[in-house]
Amino acid sequence: MTYEDLVEKIKKAGGRVTGQRKIILQQLIKHQNKLQSVDELLYACQQYNSAINLTTIYRNLEFLDGLQLIYKTNIDRATSGYKLINLETHHHYMICSSCGKLLPIEHCPMSDDLIKAAEKEGFTISGHSMEVYGTCQSCS
After folding, report:
1. Annotated binding residues
2. What are the residue ranges of CATH 1.10.10.10 in the chain?
3. Model pTM score
4. CB 41 within 8 A of CB 48
5. In which element (H, E) is residue 66 found?
6. Residues that bind Fe cation, according to the entry (predicted)?
7. Annotated binding site for Fe cation
8. Distance (Å, rounded) from C-alpha 38 to C-alpha 35?
9. Which of 24, 52, 59, 112 has the lowest tally of Cβ within 10 angstroms?
């Protein structure tokens, strides 16, 4: 997803693209293939604008999550990680617990059996996610 795509979606939703939000978006784009913790994102953004604080980061992540533009998952038990959603494709990820690198799982593991079981119970599936945690080749 490009910066222009993000700006367009934010404006269509009635949001503003402030200077601080621009920096946050640029950092999310720069690290599209890696989960970033709030602390990592804060540190990277403060290199461009020292006025950006933790509240600003959380507020913007909440806003972007509400627009379904970011993906949030756990890096470990205590830390959440964030990345931009690739709207063109549906992915599940293998996540390196050491460096946060994301490796896409090309095939969606959602089985026809699970879909049929949900239908049998009258359950309407609205979405799903799957993450596999481990150590990437570089960190092994």
Report:
1. 90, 96, 99, 128, 136, 139
2. 1-86
3. 0.70
4. no
5. helix 54-66
6. 90, 128
7. 90, 128
8. 10
9. 112
Going by the annotation, the residues of the binding site for Zn(2+) are: 96, 99, 136, 139
76-87, pLDDT tens digit by residue?
Answer: 778 888 988 865
Q: Are 41 and 57 in contact (CB under 8 A)?
A: yes
| CATH no. for 89-140 | 3.30.1490.190
Long-range Cβ contact pairs of 94-98 (< 8 A, separation 24 or more): 94/131, 94/132, 94/133, 94/134, 94/136, 95/35, 95/131, 95/132, 95/133, 95/134, 96/134, 96/135, 96/136, 96/138, 96/139, 97/133, 97/134, 97/135, 98/135, 98/136, 98/139
pLDDT digits (tens, 9 = 90+) for 38-68: 999 999 999 999 999 999 999 999 999 999 8
**The pair of three-digit structure tokens given for residue 91, joined into one six-digit string:** 């992915």
